């Protein structure tokens, strides 16, 4: 049995097969989203969400060209600003209990994320991914895969801009657009968010709390982003060496680390240093180790799709089903030449 490579019907069959593959993979978003990597506008109805909230009157900080915050002239900080002195507020999540560790990832998903998902699946480890809105919009299939495989899906704002440099309305827009695009894909709304650059103060916390979100910080930075700088001399072995030092306190402490899955180099690094973490800790996800539900729609601390039922409303994203006519026609043509 074989296809004649010269037959026009073979080309038709191949084309139909490709159409079926595309139909299976294409994702339909219900809403129109803001431009990626740019500070989004607020929806008018979102303004009411913080209208009665008690919000700290902290100053709006100066922004650097790369979107970070300029703290160079700040000499005192009564607003618990992480960027100033790594201040942790009482409702922040930032660590895990003794002997447990969450190796978390920011900025994704990206085209390099699947090999990280593959590896985590192979070692049966679930973790927390803090996803940027524009990346979710670009790679909804990867968001859905991570969620379906039991990882916690969390937020990293829409544009990845330092939050203390933004107005109250801009902060609302960053978080709500991030929430909405993720909810379209997985059917539930994340509770956890990580401020870009760790830039958060009590004003940002108050706004986030009014919207139902919980900040997640970290105890250790892998500094894997050093691998991505042009001409970088960053040695990936430094990460493993640091983890070995952190692991010496595993009898008295747990932790949460900061890593990234936006670049090939940072994902490759993670595949090498995650086994070092396993020498000292039981690896877990942030919500799981803190016994806090990662999604607004459930009290469960298990992140898989089996534990959290999607809301099922019309805004939930859908994967196009394979058209029955395409399957039937493909089968008829295939049977003609087999």
Automatic annotation (TrEMBL):
Residues annotated as domain NodB homology: 99-291
GO cellular component, one term: membrane
Domain of life: Eukaryota
SUPFAM superfamilies: Glycoside hydrolase/deacetylase (SSF88713)
InterPro entries: Glyco_hydro/deAcase_b/a-brl, NODB_dom, Polysacc_deacetylase_ArnD
Protein name: NodB homology domain-containing protein
Gene3D superfamilies the UniProt entry points to: Glycoside hydrolase/deacetylase
Transmembrane segments: none
Keyword annotations: Hydrolase, Metal-binding, Signal
UniProt GO molecular function: chitin deacetylase activity; metal ion binding
PANTHER family for this protein: CHITIN DEACETYLASE 1-RELATED, GLYCOSYL TRANSFERASE-RELATED
